[in-house]
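This follows on from our talk about sequence and fold. Please put the record directly below this note.
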Amino acid sequence: MEKTLTKKDLADLLAEAGLELNKTQAAEAVNVMLDAFTNTLKDGGTVDMFGFGKFTVTERAARSGINPATREKIEIAATKAVKFKPAKALKDALQ
């Protein structure tokens, strides 16, 4: 069965971990962490979580494509995307 881990689940785990945080404080801690990740990536940095993986920003070049509904050629603008490279420890844990 597939399980989805949400921000609320993370906050609940922090609150139950014996860190003397209530659920509101744990939710705020999760938000602060995610905001730090977002701001670091937005500024072109890297988020490296030892034993878990590394998040980086990659640039996708502009390219031409085809609208599948009309078969008309369109230009697809350049964009940025987040790339995740799992750490060896995470890869090993999944096997």
Summary: Helices lie at 7-16, 23-42, 88-93. The CA atoms of residues 52 and 91 lie 9 Å apart.
